[in-house]
Structure of Iron dependent repressor, N-terminal DNA binding domain:
Amino acid sequence: MNSQTEENYLKALFILADENGKIGVNDLSKFLGIKMPTVNSMMKKLAEKKLVRYVTYKPVTLTEVGKKEAALIVRKHRLTEMYL
């Protein structure tokens, strides 16, 4: 089970992924309005859970498991918005 914060990061990564699936940490930081050290820390945490591939100073990519998790989160949020 992912925390709400982890879900927010996964959703943002899913939205920002380009054709190669690569997301710059700086772009993620700007998108979320969160400072770089905090984003880097969360990327390490998500990498430990095998949800992203993260190497310092390199773009982040969602793993297959991460893509599935992120897609479910986005779907859940869209369904919730429909009923509000």
